[in-house]
């Protein structure tokens, strides 16, 4: 006898669990969401008094564009409290020779409420001038790429992200572009490495550095990894700052809170502190779930998992149900990319970059890298040192001074910045070594930051909450090895290829997968849960989403 | 010849509680062997303790007295014990996993060319070959291993508080004097001084308030001290404990350490503040009747063994708790 | 003061702080499986730390011995970066799962091969089997003065003076060198080794000698296994944890009630 019963049971109230739940409820199903931790949101959570009393900061995801997700309109998330601010500048970098780069969005948001954008010639010119400092041909290339983006790629973006990939053999919208000579994309690019991509688009070391470091940030990929088409576009877009940066008021938690608020209104029931252990399977059909404490929950129609492939297949379904081929496929899901030193630091004053003398805009850029102009190091040594020692000798550090645009996150007059630098998978170091690495990272970061912004001395810091991969892994079962991706994102795991055969539909009937471990990929606001709902809607004859 | 020999320990002239536990274990093993158990007492003067031991039913109480055995000088003790074993020729020798047993056990094992298992939590006899089955937690407590080794005597040191102390019965045993052939020339390690420190006896506490790395700084223990005082108004013996990281950081002395290499305790209430619950710590406190955990990480291990959990920064909750306790008392 | 020669025995083990979820027991193969990186057993790191401190004070040479079926020199190279002068791996298929006596015997073989030494330092116990025997047995085999549970070590012309922990405080003891000492964590954690130092050490072309049982002159018969008759998971220690929720003030109030009820 089941202890509870729902039409749809969602395993995990993480990001995609909180997205799909209101869609199912809106279609008239009774929905129960079962979350292991004591709070909802998974990778989309924020904490008060972090990293110091009076501050509020994110623990996992930070940089988001959720206003672009269809659920934003579908559930009126603006009215549910999700409000974004849109800075004019976007991506920036300070180099160790005093030069710097600031991208301004060519497609800024003109209506904050709807997220409506419009092309902005002036911003494009600004970015052009910035790139011109380094190389005129690269600046010209920027103009060409922006044109292609505007005409060919951008119109596909939404469709590409929020639609179920067509069967193999039928090109998806991006793949179609490869046969269009005017798109600037050709088929060989699918198989190029990050380094090859960086070299094939730009000639200046600055832009190549930005591209390579950007591949890490946007997809966790190393220079010799193959990103695949979607990530190439993603990285170009980030580096060239096409789309506007966006900052949710009250931190990323506002995304989760607004989704959950919408869900509750539609009758979704959320259960926290409820770790799921098994999917109950009868005759190859999902019938419900079993919690760790033994409670059984009946799923009258379907079970949907917001988990990574290994946990779903090896633990919840169980190896005994897997064919050898399936088992090997699961085994080939690796977790050794996208691990970070990551978290907020609280400061008395914002960094005052020496580079601002010649380029004042650099003082307020939502995503600011400070990094040496050492392409050879980034290509050849950076990752090697990280895997050997836990951190590189030269940092390519990304910082997010969000309190400039959302002062509610800090006590008056104070600021906080999110920090991102890459590190190795959790398994590579012992617990004690991670504690030591954390301390050395923090000290080194301050030492190195000062070279770019002399006021970033130790006494400018009020507090820090920089997490290492072991902390992420311990709290997030599906982020194995403590990276932000549920399985490596590149190559065979990017775009339409991500996940196991069957995609959103698993080989168990009525068991679906909606997490970032499937097509859609890691990051907030990606399409996996939305597309998963579309598949379910088709299977059960439910209404399609309105947007 | 004695089947099971217990090395007893004498504290202030009397048998130590651990010795009674060992006698309990010895009696059980002797029963399984169909044999007898005896007790060996060493020191400069152990007659009182020997008399005290007879009612517990050992077949013999071996009394090894020597002026040089005053205080614990390992070199002299291990030689005396070696000689005693040769004379008594026991099948099994049990020692407590105390400071004395931890030092004597390995050295004696080497001299007698036998094999020792330390820190045992269960013992029994393999009926097939009469060898001692020695159950011991390994990997800090993450696994339990049963060892079986050759050699005589069969040697084990035994963890405190796992065997029930033996009860008195009609003791008909006898006291046997044995001699040790030792002199000062055996001493390789000279004692310069013994320094008594202000040591907490955590095992005597009713309530232990323990702090770990999560306190963040030494001052955290001041807050715990205030909590200790507040609790003292309602509970008998309230003491401060800690995890090893707190010791390693130099915030507090090691006599406060709870765990595998600290003190193993089973108080009525154990309050773990900013302690993650590493296995080596857990094994030292998991027997507490009630466990209360205060930790900012909902996923931490301590919550898994706790009866009550508070997910909160200790600096927020403890001052408030002290206030509320004052109101209640 | 004359320089001293120190030998530190350091064992490679899986991270003893690995969370419970990373540890499992294969009862059939009688193995504890720990899904965690290898480290130097923590008390052996403490032993290395005092060795380095002593070397800094009076000068000398530190050799590190590490014994196992296969020892990872990447893990152990850290000892060189921390200040050891020499690392010798004692590797042999027959060194798998040795009992404490056999381990000590093999180490004694290596130490006799080195020949010249003043102090032998080991950790008080290894973080995997928690036996706490090898150091003291080694001292017995080599017929050295043995001192256990050291929390402070100093050298005074030809002798070593040690503060050792005892239940009521500490005892200051003195022994002529050579001597064997087992070290406890009170001596302090192994110093942190900066990345630049580690990098140099990892890249260093230095060859690390590896000695087999034969090199040490120990026969196969002298090497006995631990004698595991059974291996199992520990009993479940879990309890039903009642979470106390609310604002800190409310939590404090509820917690005070819990204390009151337990009075
Ligand atoms: C450190 C870090 C930084 C990041 N930064 C960014 C960023 O800046 N921008 C961005 O876009 N993305 C970022 N991400 C990625 C983003 O957070 C994830 O891609 C996103 O949260 C994935 O959503 P998901 O639903 O697949 O997984 P999750 O959000 O992790 O949801 C999975 C949920 O399932 C729960 N669960 C797991 N096991 C069980 C079980 N057995 N029973 C019940 N529940 C279970 C989990 O607790 C969790 O709530 C970051 C991630 C991390 C870790
Ligand atoms: C052979 C061996 C023997 C050992 N013997 C012992 C022993 O006898 N005793 C022992 O304790 N350890 C022992 N250890 C060490 C043990 O493995 C752990 O390293 C140690 O117990 C961890 O201590 P901790 O919980 O204080 O630190 P951590 O594991 O670092 O935990 C700190 C905790 O504090 C929490 N926290 C952080 N900030 C706050 C806040 N503001 N408020 C509340 N909570 C907060 C964190 O969430 C975390 O859970 C031994 C290890 C080995 C290898």
Architecture blueprint of SSEs:
The complex is a heterotrimer of chains A (547), B (329) and C (263).
Chain A (H helix, E strand, L loop, with lengths): L3 E8 L3 H12 L4 E4 L11 E3 L7 E3 L11 H5 L9 E2 L3 E7 L4 E5 L4 E3 L4 E2 L3 H12 L3 H26 L11 H5 L16 H8 L3 H15 L9 H12 L6 E2 L4 H13 L3 E3 L4 E7 L2 E7 L4 E10 L3 H10 L5 H8 L8 E8 L19 E5 L3 H6 L1 H8 L7 E4 L14 E8 L8 H22 L8 E4 L4 H7 L35 E3 L14 H13 L7
Parallel strand pairs in A: 1-2, 1-14, 2-11, 6-16, 14-20
Antiparallel strand pairs in A: 3-4, 5-10, 6-7, 8-9, 12-13, 13-14, 15-18, 15-19, 16-17, 17-18
Chain B lengths: L3 E4 L2 E2 L2 E2 L1 H17 L3 E7 L3 H7 L6 E6 L8 H15 L3 E5 L2 H13 L4 E5 L1 E4 L6 E7 L4 E5 L6 E5 L15 E5 L10 E8 L10 E5 L8 H13 L5 E5 L1 H5 L20 E5 L5 H7 L4 E6 L6 H4 L2 E4 L2 H15 L1
Parallel strand pairs in B: 1-4, 1-6, 4-5, 5-12, 6-11, 7-11, 14-15, 14-16, 16-17, 17-18
Antiparallel strand pairs in B: 2-3, 8-9, 9-10
Chain C lengths: L3 E6 L2 E3 L8 E4 L4 E4 L3 E3 L1 H17 L1 E9 L4 H10 L3 E6 L8 H15 L4 E5 L10 H8 L4 E11 L2 E8 L2 E8 L2 E5 L11 H9 L6 E2 L1 H4 L11 E5 L9 E2 L4 H15 L1
Parallel strand pairs in C: 1-6, 1-8, 6-7, 7-13, 8-12, 9-12
Antiparallel strand pairs in C: 2-5, 3-4, 9-10, 10-11
Helix pairs in contact in C: 2-5, 3-4
One flavin-adenine dinucleotide sits at the interface of chains B and C.
Written account of the structure:
The complex is a heterotrimer of chains A (547), B (329) and C (263). Chain A is of the alpha/beta class and 547 residues long. Chain A has a domain at 4-46 and 64-78 and 250-333 and 487-540: FAD/NAD(P)-binding domain. Chain A has helices at residues 15-26, 70-74, 121-132, 136-161, 173-177, 194-201, 205-219, 229-240, 253-265, 309-318, 324-331, 375-380, 382-389, 431-452, 469-475, 528-540; strands at residues 4-11, 31-34, 46-48, 56-58, 84-85, 89-95, 100-104, 109-111, 116-117, 247-248, 269-271, 276-282, 285-291, 296-305, 340-347, 367-371, 397-400, 415-422, 461-464, 511-513. Chain A is globular and about 70 Å long. The radius of gyration of chain B is 22 Å and the shape is elongated. Chain B has two domains: 4-186, 3-Layer(aba) Sandwich (Rossmann fold); 202-328, Rossmann fold (3-Layer(aba) Sandwich). By secondary structure, chain B is α/β, with parallel strands linked by helices. In chain B, α3 (74-88) packs across α4 (99-111) and α5 (220-232) packs parallel to α9 (314-328). Chain B is 29% helix and 27% strand. Chain C has a single domain (4-222), classed as Rossmann fold, CATH 3.40.50.620. Helix content of chain C is 30%, strand content 31%. Chain C is built from seven helices and 15 strands. Chain C has a nine-stranded mixed sheet, with helices on both faces. In chain C, strands 2-5 form a two-stranded antiparallel sheet. The longest helix of chain C is centred in the N-terminal third of the chain and has 17 residues, at 42-58. Chains in contact: A-B, A-C, B-C. Chain A binds chain B through residues 37-39, 49, 474-475, and chain B through 297-299, 311, 313. β18 of chain B pairs parallel with β15 (242-243) of chain C, so a sheet runs across the interface. One flavin-adenine dinucleotide is lined by residues 11-17, 34-37, 42-44, 60-64, 275-276, 306-307, 311, 340, 342, 472, 476-479, 484, 486, 515-516, 522-524 of chain A.
């Amino acid at each position: 006898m089941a202890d509870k019963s729902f039409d749809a049971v969602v395993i995990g109230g993480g990001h995609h669990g909180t997205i799909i739940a209101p869609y199912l409820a809106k279609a008239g199903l009774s929905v129960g969401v079962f979350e292991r931790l004591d709070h909802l949101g998974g990778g989309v959570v924020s904490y008060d008094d972090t990293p110091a009393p009076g501050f509020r900061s994110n623990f996992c995801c930070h940089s988001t564009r959720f206003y672009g997700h269809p659920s934003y309109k579908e559930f009126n998330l603006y009215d549910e409290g999700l409000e974004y601010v849109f800075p004019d500048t976007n991506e920036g970098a300070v180099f160790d020779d005093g030069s710097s780069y600031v991208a301004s969005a060519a497609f800024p948001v003109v209506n904050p409420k709807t997220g409506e954008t419009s092309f902005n010639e002036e911003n494009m010119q600004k970015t052009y001038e910035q790139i011109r400092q380094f190389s005129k041909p690269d600046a010209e290339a920027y103009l060409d790429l922006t044109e292609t983006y505007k005409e060919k790629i951008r119109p596909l973006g939404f469709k590409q992200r929020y639609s179920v990939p067509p069967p193999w053999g039928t090109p998806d919208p991006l793949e179609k572009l490869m046969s269009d000579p005017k798109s600037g994309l050709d088929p060989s690019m699918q198989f190029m490495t990050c380094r090859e991509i960086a070299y094939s688009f730009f000639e200046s070391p600055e832009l190549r550095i930005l591209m390579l470091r950007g591949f890490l940030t946007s997809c966790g990929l190393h220079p010799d990894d193959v990103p695949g088409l979607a990530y190439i576009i993603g990285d170009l877009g980030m580096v060239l700052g096409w789309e506007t940066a966006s900052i949710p008021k009250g931190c990323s938690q506002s995304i989760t809170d607004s989704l959950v608020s919408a869900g509750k209104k539609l009758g979704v029931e959320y259960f926290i502190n409820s770790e799921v252990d098994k999917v109950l399977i009868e005759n190859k059909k999902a019938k419900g779930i079993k919690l760790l404490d033994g409670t059984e929950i009946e799923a009258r129609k379907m079970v949907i998992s917001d988990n990574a492939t290994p946990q779903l297949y090896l633990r919840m379904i169980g190896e005994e149900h897997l064919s050898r081929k399936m088992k090997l496929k699961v085994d080939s899901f690796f977790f050794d990319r996208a691990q970070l030193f990551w978290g907020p630091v609280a400061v008395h004053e914002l960094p005052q970059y020496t580079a601002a003398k010649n380029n004042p805009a650099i003082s307020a850029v939502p995503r600011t890298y400070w990094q040496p102009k050492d392409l050879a190091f980034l290509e050849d040594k950076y990752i090697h040192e990280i895997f050997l020692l836990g951190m590189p000798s030269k940092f390519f550090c990304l910082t997010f001074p969000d309190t400039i645009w959302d002062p509610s996150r800090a006590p008056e007059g104070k600021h906080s910045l999110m920090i991102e630098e890459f590190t190795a998978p959790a398994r590579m170091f012992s617990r004690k070594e991670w504690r030591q690495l954390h301390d050395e990272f923090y000290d080194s970061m301050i030492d190195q930051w000062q070279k770019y912004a002399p006021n970033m001395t130790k006494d400018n810091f009020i507090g820090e909450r920089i997490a290492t991969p072991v902390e992420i892994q311990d709290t997030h079962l599906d982020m194995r090895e403590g990276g932000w991706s549920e399985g490596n994102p590149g190559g065979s795991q990017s775009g339409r290829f991500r996940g196991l055969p069957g995609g959103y539909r698993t080989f168990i009937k009525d068991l679906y997968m909606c997490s970032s471990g499937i097509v859609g990929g890691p990051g907030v606001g990606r399409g996996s849960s939305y597309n998963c709902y579309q598949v379910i809607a088709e299977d059960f004859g439910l209404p399609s989403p309105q947007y | 010849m004695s089947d099971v020999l217990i090395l007893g320990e004498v504290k202030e002239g009397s048998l130590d509680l651990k010795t009674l536990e060992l006698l309990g274990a010895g009696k059980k093993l002797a029963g399984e062997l169909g044999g007898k158990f005896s007790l060996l007492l060493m020191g400069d003067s152990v007659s009182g303790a020997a008399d005290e031991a007879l009612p517990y039913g050992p077949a013999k109480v071996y009394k090894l007295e020597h002026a040089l055995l005053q205080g614990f000088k390992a070199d002299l003790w291990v030689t005396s014990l070696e000689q005693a074993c040769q004379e008594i020729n026991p099948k099994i020798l049990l020692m407590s996993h105390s400071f004395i047993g931890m030092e004597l056990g390995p050295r004696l094992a080497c001299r007698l060319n036998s094999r020792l298992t330390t820190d045992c939590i269960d013992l029994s006899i393999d009926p097939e070959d009469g060898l001692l089955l020695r159950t011991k937690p390994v990997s800090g407590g993450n696994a339990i291993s049963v060892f079986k080794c050759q050699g005589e005597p069969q040697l084990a040191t035994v963890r405190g508080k796992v065997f029930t102390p033996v009860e008195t019965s009609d003791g008909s045993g006898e006291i046997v004097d044995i001699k040790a052939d030792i002199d000062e020339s055996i001493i390789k390690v000279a004692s310069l001084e013994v320094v008594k420190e202000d040591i907490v006896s955590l095992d005597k506490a009713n309530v232990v308030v323990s702090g770990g790395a999560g306190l963040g700084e030494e001052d955290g223990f001041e807050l715990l001290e205030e909590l200790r005082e507040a609790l003292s108004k309602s509970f008998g013996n309230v003491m401060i404990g800690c995890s090893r990281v707190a010791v390693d950081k130099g915030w507090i002395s090691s006599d406060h350490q709870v765990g595998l290499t600290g003190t193993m305790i089973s108080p009525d209430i154990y309050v773990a503040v900013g302690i993650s619950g590493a296995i080596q710590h857990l094994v030292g406190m998991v027997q507490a009747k009630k466990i209360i955990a205060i930790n900012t990480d909902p996923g931490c291990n301590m919550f898994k063994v706790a009866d009550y959990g508070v997910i909160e920064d200790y600096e927020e909750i403890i001052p408030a708790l002290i206030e509320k306790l004052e109101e209640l008392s | 003061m004359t320089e001293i020669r120190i030998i530190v025995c350091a064992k490679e083990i899986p991270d003893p702080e690995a969370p419970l979820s990373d540890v499992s027991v294969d009862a059939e193969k009688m193995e504890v499986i720990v899904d965690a990186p290898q480290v130097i057993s923590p008390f052996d790191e403490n032993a290395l730390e005092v060795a380095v401190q002593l070397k800094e004070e009076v000068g000398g040479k530190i050799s590190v011995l590490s014994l196992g079926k296969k020892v990872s020199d990447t893990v152990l190279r850290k000892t060189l970066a921390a200040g050891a002068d020499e690392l010798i791996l004692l590797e042999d298929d027959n060194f798998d799962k040795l009992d404490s006596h056999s381990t000590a015997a093999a180490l004694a073989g290596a130490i006799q091969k080195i020949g010249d030494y003043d102090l032998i330092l080991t950790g008080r116990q290894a973080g995997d089997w928690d036996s706490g025997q090898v150091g003291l047995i080694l001292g017995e085999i080599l017929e050295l003065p043995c001192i256990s549970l050291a929390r402070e070590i100093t050298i005074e012309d030809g002798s070593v003076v040690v503060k050792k922990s005892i239940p009521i405080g500490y005892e200051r003891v003195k022994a002529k060198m050579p001597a064997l000492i087992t070290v406890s964590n009170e001596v302090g954690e192994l110093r942190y080794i900066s990345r630049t130092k580690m990098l140099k050490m990892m890249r260093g072309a230095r060859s690390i000698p590896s000695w087999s049982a034969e090199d040490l002159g120990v026969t196969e018969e002298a090497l006995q296994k631990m004698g595991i008759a059974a291996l199992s998971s520990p009993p479940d220690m879990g309890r039903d944890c009642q979470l106390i929720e609310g604002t800190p003030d409310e939590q404090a109030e509820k917690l005070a009630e819990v204390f009151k009820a337990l009075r």
